[in-house]
Structure formats: C-alpha cells, structure tokens
Amino acid sequence: MSELLQFLFSGVTVGAVYALVALGFTIIYNASDVVNFAQGEFVMLGGMLTFAGSAAGLPLLLAAVIAILATAAMGVLMNKLAIEPARGAPVVSLIIITIGASIFIRGGTQLIFGKQIHTYPSISGDTPIRIMGATILPQSLWVILGAVLVFIGLWLFFTRTLLGRAVLATSNNRLAAQLVGINTNFVMTLSFALSAGIGALAGVLISPITMTSYDVGLALALKGFAAAMLGGMGNPKGALVGGLLLGLMEALTAGYLSSQYKDAAAFIIILAVLFFLPQGLFGRKSTERV
Amino acid sequence: MSEHLLSIEGLGITFGGLKAVDDVSFTVRPGEIVSVIGPNGAGKTTLFNMISGIYLPGRGKVMLGGEDVTGLSPNLLAQRGMSRTFQNLQIFQSMTVLENAIAGYHLTERGSVLADLLNLPGSRRRAAAAAEGARALLTRVGLDRAADREAGSLSYGALKRLEIARALALSPKILLLDEPAAGCNAVETEEIDHLIAEVAASGVAILLVEHDMKMVMRISNHIVVLDHGEKIAEGDPATISRDPAVIAAYLGTDAQTASETETADAQG
Amino acid sequence: MKLSSKHVTLLVLLALVAISPMLFPSGYYYRVGALIFVNAFAVTGIVILTGYAGQISLGHAGFAGIGAYACALAPVHLGLHPALAAVLGALISAVLAWLVGRPILRLKGYYLGVATLGFGILVSMVLNNERQLTGGPDGMEVPDLGLRGVLKDWGLDLSNGQFWYFFSGICLLIGAWLALNLYHSPTGRALRALHGSEIAARVVGVDVAREKLKAFVISAVYASVSGSLLALQNKFITPDVAGFMHSIEMVTMAVLGGVGSVLGAVFGTAVLTLLPQVLTAFGEYEQLILGLVMMLVMIFLPAGLLPSILRKLRGAEA
After folding, report:
1. Does residue C254 form part of some domain?
2. Residue B263 pLDDT
3. ipTM reported for the complex, 2 dp
4. Angle CA B205–B207–B208, to nearest 5
C-alpha cells in the first residue's frame, strides 16, 4: 500500500510537469494550429536561467521571476521571427520550423552555459514528508501546487476575462474573430508568451528535483506532446488529464514492471487510446465539409 | 418503364439536434435526369453526401440496382457504379489536368503495386489505356488542349468540367452532379447542359442539384423539391413550377425565375 | 526525343554518382558521399510517404533500426549472409509497418505524428535496453558484406571508401528508379490523389486506407534498407540509428530539399549531410547554425530548396 502510494506521489509530480508542458502545447495550438516542438526548451530555459541568475548572486525568487519573464520574451520572439512569417505553411514545414527553433535554443544555451548539469536549492528544503508510510519531497508539493494554480488561473482567464474569451474565439474561428475586431496577431503573441512562461515555471519548479542541463528539453517536449495528444490536442482539460495519466503510467510501470520500459508503457497506452479514440480522450470531433 | 436504378427510402440525418434532412424518398431510372432543388440550406448537399457515402445516414435506406448500399463508403459505391462531383471543387490541384482525368480510371487501371514499382509492361498497359480514355474524355468536355497544365491553374468553369470528366471516367451507372453550372457563364452553362443531356441519353441516370432554374426546368425529367430538409413536392418541371408550396418556399425572386422559365419553355 | 522528367532525374543522379569522385580532394570524401547516398535512400522512402501520399511519420528511424540490427544480429544468431540479413530486415520492417500502419493510418496530421513517434521510440527503447542481444547503448559490431573481396578477386580493387561510395550510389539509383516508376504509375496517382483530396479520391474508387498502407510499407522498406546499408558500411551500429533525431533528420532532409520530388530530396539530403561536416569548422556554433538553417529555409523557401532554386532559374531565363 505504501509502495503504491509512493509510486502515485512520483507519478503525480512528473505528471504535473507533463501537464504543464502539454498545456503549453495546447495554448499555442489553439491560437495558431501549430504544434510547437520547442515547448520543452522553454522548460529547460526556466531551470537554466534560474540557476544562472542565482549563481550570479540574485535571490532565488527574483532569479526565478526573471527566468520566467525572459523565457516568455523568448516565446514572443519565436512567434514573431519564426512562426508568423511562415503562416499557412504545411504541417510538416511547421514541425521542422519548431524543431529548428528547438535545436537553435538548445545550441545557444549550450554555447552560453556549457554542458554541465545544474541544480539549485528547493523552496522549502529537502526533508521528505512522510504520509502513510510513503514519502514526498516538499518540492514535489510545490510542483503540484504550481500546476494546480496555473490550471485554475487559466480557467479563470479563459472564462472570466474578455481577453481570455478573445483567445478562445480565435481558436474557434480565426476569421470570425478577426471580423468581430479581435486582434488575432496579439492573441498569438500572448499565447506564445503564456505558453513559454508556463513552460519556464514548470522548469523552475522541477529542476531542484530532476536537475537541469541544456539538453533536457527534447524529452520533455516529446512527453508533453504525447500527453497533449492523449488528452486530445487543443483541450486544456485534456492536457491536464493526459499529463497526469502519462506521469502515473510511467511511475507505475517503472515501479511494478521495469524502469527501462516506463516510456514504452506510456506510448503503448497512447497508441491504444488513439486506436479507439482517434481524437484523443477529449478531442474535438471534426466533420468533413464538402 | 425500366427498373429503378437508385431508390432513396425515407433518408434522414440530424446534426446537433437539427434535422438537416428528414424522411426524403424518391427514385431515379437509368437515362433519367432527376433534379433536387430547394432554397439555400434546404439540405440538398447533405442529401447528396448521404447518398454518396460521405455522411452516414441517421435513418432510411439507399438502394442502388436493387442492393442496399446505405452507409457504404464512397470507394465501394464507386465500384457499384456511382460517381459524383462537388459543389466546392475537389480537384487534385498539384496534378495535371490529364492526371486528374486519369485518376477517374483508378478502378480499371489499378493493379499490383509491385508491377507499378518495377514499371512492368502490365502496369504500363493499364496506365496507357487509362490515359487514352482520359484524353478522349477531356476532348469531350473541351479540355484536351489544357491536358498537360497543372489543374490548379485552370479557370473555375474549366475545373467544373474537369470534375465531370473525372466522374465520367468511372463509366458510372448513376452520376451525382452538385451544382455543375455554379459560377459558370452562359456559354459554359450551355455546354454543361448539353453534356448532361448527352450523358443521360447514353443511359446514365443523373441526379442533379442546381440553382440555375432555367437549366433545371430545361433538362430535368423529374424534380424533387426540398425545404428545411423535407420533400415538399415532386413531379415533372411543368407541375413543379405551378406548385403553390414550391412557389411559397422560394418566396419572390426565385419563384419568379421559375415561372418565367416556364413561360419561356411554353413559348420555346 | 524529349526526355521525360523521370529520365532526367535518373541521368542527373547517375552523373552525380559517376562524376563527383573526380572532384574529391581525398579519400575521406568517398565516405561522406556514401553517407549521403545511404541517407538519400531512406529519404526517398519519405518522399513516397510524405511527398506523394501526404502522410507524416516521426518514427521512420525505427525501421532503419530494424534494418541495421538485422544485419548485426541475423548473421550471428541465424548464420545468414549479411545481404540476406538485410532482406530479412526489410521483410520484418514491411510486416511490422503493415501491422502498425493499419490502425494508425486512420489518424490525421499530428495524431499520426505522435503515433509514429511512439512506434519509433518503442523500437529504439528495445535496442537500448535488450543489452544481451544488442549491446545496449554501446552498440555492436556488424559483419562484413564480403562483396568488396569478391570484386577484388575479379580484379576490381576498390578502397573501402570507394566501394561503399559506388555500392550505395547504385542502391540509390535503383531506389530512385523504383520511386519514379511509382510516381507515374496507377498506385502513385492514387497516392497523389488522396494527398490532394481524400474525399475526391474515395469518390473515384480509391481505397484510401489501403493505399496509405502501401505507401507506409514501401517507405518502411526504404528506411530499413538504408539502415542495413549504414550498418554494413560502418561495420558498427548503435541504437542512435533508430532514435527520434534520426527520424526527424529524414523528414527534414526530404522537406528541406523539396518533398515532392526524388531529386529535391537527394539535394536536401546532401545539404543536410554536408552541413554538419562544414559546421564542425564552427565548433560550438554547430547546433545554433543548424537550427537557424532549418528555420530559414522553411520560412523563406517553404516549397524546399530545389523547387525554389529551379523556379528562380526559370524566372531568370524568362
């Protein structure tokens, strides 16, 4: 029982990070129909920049805030320089552009910060908390709390604010949104900023547990992408459920079956889900129009 | 009186609680031109999409040559002799005009993929036969000189004719034409008009959705009128143009066009 | 006589294979050339899948991995000749592609992307984890093809680099010939038709699922053979051959050059294979520049390098 609980704890922690990455995918996808494979690099930047800031003598909290803002700015730049000029390009060209951006960011980070693995102190120390025979790191609680706050905040943003509704309207029908006077370019910029910022936050929170280096982004992007597809691309609820499910599946497979094949279980289940639900768990069903 | 080739029995479909098409029945015989008319949003294209297997009907049956083909996918319907064109063109844009027409011969030119990879004589023979047929069809629709152009570069009217040529390549028993004259000028409309009559004369059943009332009244043997997804009238052109329910459905301009056409027909 | 585009492509490729060595300053370039041909072979398969049929795969390196490890494992465990091992690898890839493709080719766009991605990751995970069999991440040795020795007995003495250059070049020519045949054949037409409009293709009788599956299986065999060639040429193989980055490389090479045509894909492959060689001169800036090139080409030349260059040339003529 305590063993199961232990696996659940680690699954939810990792799952919360996947959910945040998947949410980043979802926000950008909704605004622009682009799947941004550089999403993982935002997570990496969050961790690396926080480390760099605190190494330069800044208080950790300030370093984290700067890291998140800088990453959000990076997201905006990426949209302006790489995505907007390629509007209307086929899916596979967009995939290559975002992968190019991801390689570029990774290369740049390596150039500036080197190849070392970095970490920085947890927010509330590293003494594990004991719950019913299992333990959980205080930092895990911060990760989970961060994810919960982001999801609640976004939900309020999308349902309660005019700007949030404008974003939703744009994702439903870009042209119609333009016609009613929504600045869709601004919505795209905002989406990239938001999604880069959320990615960076995930990186800030998880790095004390997993550590970080210039090359952690790709694996996270693939997991986040898979989680987003599992939940159904374009649906924030899908991102949350997909991310948590993926994290739990990995933790349970690693715990009970084989840690080497934890990624395999995740992808086998994704294939199975897509087999029965080609649009993912909560995806929109599209009707062909002729 | 020949057998019914296509028989639609109580066909219906619901989208989000709205009955887009409800309980529509009619029949088409070989060589007959049946038109489906109705105001915008009456459900004509939806009806076409159900008959041609693109939408799965919620209720009712589609019988083709005595066989129940309800819900069969379009490629299986193609094998059974059904072919169609689209209101919003569905052209293979990056292929040449000739290749678009050849694509219509898919069922007769397809063969072993190994033969295709190795360019074996069998594969070449099949492709050559299809190309020959396609060229003849392009001549028939007046596109022979554009054969090697990229299809995307053609005018709207020419693309409409290309779609008809591609549909004819299947040697269909029944041809569904969704607004073949939409966006065409008077000359092009008349050409299409002749083409349809010619095809029907060769024994192919034609089901037509068209907004050009003059054309409908001129070439149809039988007209089915839809309004709000339901069949409100059915009969020969003369009967339909006098039907009060039809005139009411068209309210104003279209009804007037219809009655003018009738007068024109009576005079002509 | 007017040459068809198919013959022009084959002649250009033939000239490329035959004439390039005259420009090689050293034997090292034979190796680079061979690598380009091997990569281009896999990319030709992507042209069929993505360029003809419009389907995306982010996991084709999985098939390359199967082809590569077939050449490493089958000679040791089954006593097969390496050439037969490559054939066996291609068969396994074909069967696997058929089994995997049937359910996942119903998916569209990004969903197909993630499903193929999952497949590729599963293969690379097995290769990484089954250490007893594959040696894990350290890789394993691959036996010699033995053909060079045979040629030597016949009086044709080639260096290892030369042999693999010409052997891979000939393989690529055959691969290109098959792909070009397919393009102009009934099957190729059906694939391009469903790429253009799936609905219209179905209406003219194309069994869309079946035709997509054919393209998937054929492209898997191309990837598998490419993996085999790579393994035999290097006489050593690591699971990287099946990795996600290799899948992405294949797609990028194809799209960068111009995914619609075999020649464009070969061109893109050459550029992307040579680029890292050139970029090593830039040392630490290598990754940065590679990412930049990928973005710039796709933003400014969305049709791919070769079609865009050809259009410019034609524009200059007119």
Report:
1. no
2. 47
3. 0.87
4. 135
